[in-house]
User: Fold this.
Amino acid sequence: MDHTRIDDLIDHLRSPAPQEAWESFLERYSPLLLEVVRLFERDEDAAGDCYVFICEQLSRDNFRRLLRFRPDGPARFTTWLCVVARNLCLDWHRREVGRHRVFASVGRLSALDQKVFHCLFVELRPVEAAFLELRPAFPQLTIDQVCEGADRVQRTLTSRQRWLLNARRARASVRATVSLGQADEAVWDAPSDMPNPETWAGLQEERAALFAAMSRLSARERLLVRLRFERELTLDEIARLMQLDNAQSADRRIQEAVEKLRAAMSEP
Assistant:
């Protein structure tokens, strides 16, 4: 997009009805934003959450961040946008780390019990290791007191909090165990899933038909389909990004677009 079109985009974002300009921005620059996100987060679920956070921040306060760009400045829009997205990724990570430190119910416990929570329930250390780590800060501490603290923490945790702890542990475990050597071995050992030539030709024809059908949709409909099926956003996330009333409204519009695709692809 050249400077003239950037000027147009910014002007439309300033208008009383900026929705079309926002949708054009999302359709064009979502791939770039996702590239930046994946430099910080490889987990697909977390990457999707980070991407939604960036889009929400870019649209916040009537697109305040986007309107800061100056077409006559020294940086190209894509370069400037990458820097903004990078900073928002860092903000998202700081928010996530802060959220994971301690639950509110645990925060009401004593300083010792909070340390026990972190050692035993977050870092999954053995009781003996937790005891040795905490002993310098609590010189009179005994192993029995560590166990008693663990019991108190356990009683404060709700079933949802236990689920969140398990989910965080699972994510950390996956990241820690997938080394480069293991990944290489998995690649070489995996059987080929490439289709045979006849199937491949059929897939290519279907893909061409899909692209042709997509071109017949409106820009808004194409964006809805891509956010749902390419970016795999939830209906709630799409409703927020597209400023729709609710998830049901997003689902209805997506289904309408999908029906148009099916009709276009079934035409001779």
User: Anything to note?
Assistant: The longest helix spans residues 77-101. Residues 172-195 have pLDDT under 50 and may be disordered.
